[in-house]
Amino acid sequence: MKNSQLYKGSLNTIIMKLLEENGKMYGYEITQKVKAITQGELLITEGALYPALHKLEAEGILDVEIEKVDNRLRKYYKLTEKGTTETVNRLSELEDFIRNMQTLVNPKLEF
Amino acid sequence: MKLTTQQIEQIEETLVLNGIRYDDIKLELTDHIASEIEGKTSIEGVSFEVAFYEIFENWKEELRPSTSHWVGLINSSPKIVLDKWVRITKQLQLKALLIALVPTLFFAYFLNGKLNKFDYTLSIQIFKTVCLAISLSIIIFKFLIFKSKIKTSFSLYFNKNSTVFFIYLIFYGLGFIPIKLSIWDYETSVFFILLLSFLFMYSIFCLKLAYQHLQFVKKLKLS
Questions:
Q1: B152: Cα separation from own chain's centroid
Q2: How far is it, in rounded angstroms, from Cα B190 to Cα B143?
Q3: What is chain A's alpha carbon radius of gyration, rounded to the nearest angstrom?
Q4: Within an 8 Å CB–CB cutoff, is residue A36 touching chain B?
Q5: Among B132, B118, B127, B126, which Cα is nearest to B182's?
Q6: Shortest Cα distance from B161 to chain A (angstroms)?
Q7: How near does any CA of chain B get to the CA of A87, in Å?
Q8: pTM over cut 0.90
Q9: Mean pLDDT per 10-residue section of chain B, whose length is 223 residues
Q10: Which end of chain A is more exposed for a tag (fewer CB within 10 A), N or C?
């Protein structure tokens, strides 16, 4: 992942946000969607994606569906009820974080 | 370009050769790699063989045999399998320890000095019964996993984690190892309450892994 240290902490929220918008997605689809949205600026590696997906699944935030697509099986991830609530909270936290960072990086001091 | 059944099988076989023998991870990686190859052959116009080689090169790090002292150094597995295993083991151990502290502290601060000899004897019997009940549950789940004829990362983690605990539980339950709860020895009693509570909680969490395996098998059969 590009600038991995900066993006690492937000990966789970990025995945949850994508699933909130798209309903259900599979691993490769998530990497391609992120690449397309950020115009190739952010590349999620498989080494970062699957641990994050498995952790969210273990926490009960994601549920799994298996479907036969073409000539192979595909594992889709979708948000659980708990995951939907958690997405709202985490997005709000992320927005606060971005706002604070913008204030710190570009301070408008008033005296 | 959509891949043929033979090409999908080639991906699966290569994953198995690299230690990905667990269906939950294998089907996910097969689909991911197949999708990557399809993308590469369509966009760059390269052959299946070239795309296959290049993409497996990118996956080399995730498929590298790895070990960790958290799960025992003899348990070498591909990094992607081991990382999940280590994370689950750490989480289960921490959760089991934290929950085990509750009855231990309750005994140490509220019950100490208030129990008589009969209470201690009764507690030992209760502990033995719980040990046997959990041991029996482990045997049932091991049988169900064996019957399912499918290997998943959950069945791997369950089998590896529960075996040692099963031996301790059955030995305590049948009385081969004494449960040293005594009105005369406070420190040993506290230690045994902590130990047994930890064993119970850890084994119950392991049973959840077995349940997750069975859930996956059910989903696989429905697909």
A1: 10
A2: 35
A3: 16
A4: no
A5: B118
A6: 17
A7: 22
A8: no
A9: 93 96 95 96 94 95 92 88 92 95 89 76 90 96 96 94 90 88 79 92 95 95 85
A10: C
